[in-house]
User: What shape does this take?
Amino acid sequence: MDKMPRWADVFLIPLISLLLAAGLSALVILAIGENPWAALKMMVSGALGSTYGWGYTLYYTTNFIFTGLAVSVAYHARMFNIGGEGQAMLGGLGVALACLYLPLPHWLIALPVAAAAAAIFGAAWALIPGYLQAKRGSHIVITTIMFNFIAAALLNYILVNLLRPQGSMDPATAKFPEATHLPTLHDLLAPLGIAFSKAAPANVTFLVGLLACFVVWLLLWRTKLGYEIRAFGHSEPAAVYAGINPVRITVIAMLISGGLAGLMAINNVMGEAERLVMNAVEGAGFIGIAVALMGRNHPAGVLIAALLFGFLYQGGAELALWTSIPRELIVVIQALVILFTGALDDMVRMPVERLFTRRKGEA
Amino acid sequence: MVDNQQTGRPEMVAPDASRAPAIELRGISKAFGPVQANKDISIRVMPGTIHGIIGENGAGKSTLMSILYGFYKADKGEIFVNGDKKNITDSQTAIAAGIGMVFQHFKLVQNFTVLENVILGAEDGALLRPSLAKARKELTALAKEYELNVNPDAVVEDLSVGHQQRVEILKALYRQAEILILDEPTGVLTPAEADHLFRILENLRREGKTIILITHKLREIMEITDTVSVMRRGQMTATVKTSETSPEQLAELMVGRKVLLRVDKTAANPGDTVLEVRGLRVRDEAGVERLKGIDLDIRAGEVLGIAGVAGNGQSELLQVLGGMRSGKGSIRVNGQELDLTGLKSDARSRRKRGIAHVPEDRQREGLIMDFHAWENVAFGYHDDPKYQRGLFMDNDALRQDTQAKMAKFDVRPPDCWLSAKSFSGGNQQKIVVAREIERNPDLLLIGQPTRGVDIGAIEFIHEQIIALRDQGKAILLVSVELDEIFALSDRIAVMFDGQIMGVRDPAQTNEKELGLMMAGITDTGPQGQEASRNG
Assistant: This one.
């Protein structure tokens, strides 16, 4: 009865979208007089050609896993949480406070404590928009995007006026204590005899990200709460009919979503910078939207899409470093990928669907 | 009426071969993906006749008419209007060819006046005044000719449904339609309004207009049409003269096998009172009072049918009983008061009190259309411990349960992995009915049990309802189909404007009396309330 085999929906369509985006990007690179083939080779070798490249790619991937999952969970409750940016910023604040003010003797203790703080702060930041949506009908898109700006302003104030060490000119916290530093992939893989770049920022949080994908999958498809979230997302009247409280589900879904976005902070704040700086999130909250779109809001899809965007981020940085292709063009390429996989999804989907139904009709 | 057809219409007795058909379709085929909605359909509609098209939901009636009206393009086939081949690409060309359509869901601008609606899209020039004046004159003439009386200055949202439908007909006539297509026109009308509509259609026929009437009600076909075409699964199975056929034969042509048009049931044997409603009042989100003090009793082992035109508070009654809406007043189930506003007023608490609910709109409320059948089988009961295994849902248990229910209720295809939307309306409803009846409730609320359900499944669902009654359960049935109310109910309560107009014994009343009560006309209102109390 279904219109199209599942593999086509899950793999073929994103792949075609990706190729279209790559083709158009190649034309743009050609237009500014560079060789697109050489550029692609440089991106691949820069992002995947060395453990150093992989270290950066996986670092970015980890960020996008969390923000992508955050968007996905909210999406299953039919909410478009575009406040991942702000929620991740607040998550960073939670991490910083935990690392700076709690006695954490070892990273094995620091990691769960900081993660809890990050999730709580992120969830709290999503709670207000979630509550306003559930109780007052204030549209979640509007409130979450406003909360991104409020988060930035709040963090600015806190960093400049409260957390900045005496005499520092930099709006950032002090360095976190040594005991809270997370092991990098180098540290983790060395005992196994695998050499991994020491300089790359990928750290143990990547494993936490993989775990998060699995837990979100369990939550959505194996628990009663996930069942209720998905049922509510498909039809609110049906949820009411089944005795699911819309206010409760809306708030819970936003709390989980915000918590996931907040968790990103253990990667970028605790794992990489080891202090909280302004603008630590670097747009990962917004990339999460594209990751969720491309990953069909499924944790496995989010993981794959996060890897792709991690590659684009790292490969793009390499391009900017070694060629005369300006940094802005990298953003253009990334934007094209988002445009084709996200916004123009139907443009690819409809012809592919038609192709499949026609073949079936002839058979 | 049958006399009228036979004596007054010589060309029906001996069709005038020299006259070209008003509409002729030849070999129309249309597929939506793998679904063949129309398959090689040919039909001739003679001018000046009322031609019925009957078929079950999903038989392809609406698709065929949408092709004729230019909404869809046929994959194959030709359309002739008055003998000329026409290429109908959109509704504008259909209108130009003299075809008008009255949709099931009216396409009127609610806050415009009748006059403004009629000229909308057919204005002459940039200034409205001359068009309005012209339309006013024309409307007066049309009203006189066809009994199409509507106040041209009334705002559409203030009009009754029957009047809104007249505006739709006026719109088509104002655009010089010679051929009028009506899609399920009586679905929302009271019997009296339906009678009026049929008078209008007869007047139109007398003036030489051609009418195509799409319906699934056999009674209407028998009452008013000259010729009837039957559709089944995208194909035209027969075209016969109405005077030469019978409802039984038409039902058989629609379904493809013999069907029982009546429900076999014994007399009810009512026991203790299960549901006691007193002074129930409900306001909707806009603050409009939808239930204005309802008193009702239902006893174990009886079916109470609620008759009424859609939108007179029946939906709200079901919703407040089912815990989807809050209200004021008193509802007792098995002698225990229900919470109507607080924390225990939700659907979950209602289910715990032994109330099962088959909602009126199964696609919006009763099912999650994108969920697998096995996910839907627990819907509303998903917190039952038998579906849980520790922290997680026991999906295996759910799937086994689903297969068992599918077998018992003959759901086709019996595949628990299909999504709800892949099932036909009848099979979707069987899934919902199975879920609710199998919980062995004390009280079953069931709204429009057979809306959009094919005849074969209607039979089955009716049998299940009666079987549950015979087990000594109380059943509240809401339906806009009077036939269904008569077939199933042991007592009939009529609702109008949020009130119970009276309760009747189905053996001692008739459609005419109920029809008047449904329109709010009764001189026994207070007694009816008494009757309900005394059961």
Observations:
- Chain A touches chain B at residues 1-3, 218, 222-224, 227-228, 230-231, 234-235, 237-238, 240-245, 357, 360-361 (CB under 8 Å).
- Residues 6-25+44-353 of chain A form a domain with the ABC transporter involved in vitamin B12 uptake, BtuC fold (CATH 1.10.3470).
- Residues 164 and 255 of chain A are 29 Å apart (CA to CA).
